[in-house]
């Protein structure tokens, strides 16, 4: 189970202010492309699951992941997540022809076949995707990510911090943001749900 604290940042100006304040703790920046898949009959989403292929720094790395049963309450997201490294060339081929997913050798796809009953005769479709830029900061013994997610309909800014103590991290981050006059709100939707809705949250 992955547990993350997620706060929404209001706009680009607030994002810029926060990354400037955190700049002494900056550890690096990751550019990521994300593509999502399901069967034509929504076999995965009907069981609150999501298959994703993500490319890091264009083709440098590729990761295939299965996320299941996400909850997002009061700025704390919990999700069952399974992931593995993937050959970027195969990943790109699956984006171009999603039917290939049913035939590839992967522990994730084996799990989908076994648990969801999706056999080789079932095709997959690409649901689309989006790009994001994650700036990592090592702050207070935490890995804090400040995200910039680009959709066709706008850009969404968010703070994420994975922790086994979400309540403690949540308070630490909130105190820091308030002390520095950074406006924020609890995230209420996952990035994929925002993508599906076709508009940024109000």
Characterise this structure.
This protein is α+β, with helices and mostly antiparallel strands. It has a single domain (2-197), classed as Beta Barrel (Hypothetical Protein Pfu-838710-001). The chain is 25% helix and 44% strand. It has an eight-stranded antiparallel barrel, surrounded by four helices. The protein is elongated, with a radius of gyration of 18 Å. It starts with a strand and ends in a 5-residue tail after the last helix.
Any key phrases for this structure?
CYTH-like_dom_sf, CYTH_domain, 9 strands, Triphosphate tunel metalloenzyme 3, Hypothetical Protein Pfu-838710-001
Explain briefly what this protein structure is:
This protein is 25% helix and 44% strand. The protein contains five helices and nine strands, in the order E-H-E-E-E-E-H-H-E-E-E-H-E-H.
Low-confidence stretches: none
Q: What is the overall silhouette?
A: elongated
Overall average residue pLDDT? 94
Classify the beta-strand content into a percent band: 35-45%
* DSSP helix fraction: 10-25%
Give the number of DSSP strands. 9
The computed structural class is: alpha+beta
Count helical runs: 5
Main sheet characteristics? 8 strands, antiparallel, barrel
For the record, the count of structural domains works out to 1
**Relevant CATH superfamily:** Hypothetical Protein Pfu-838710-001
CATH architecture verdict? Beta Barrel
Multimerization status: single chain
Tell me the series of helices and strands, N- to C-terminal.
EHEEEEHHEEEHEH
Going across the major beta sheet, what is the strand order? Answer: 1-5-4-3-2-6-7-8
Radius of gyration: 18 Å
CATH topology grouping = Hypothetical Protein Pfu-838710-001
**In angstroms, what separates the terminal alpha carbons?**
29 Å
Name the CATH class: Mainly Beta
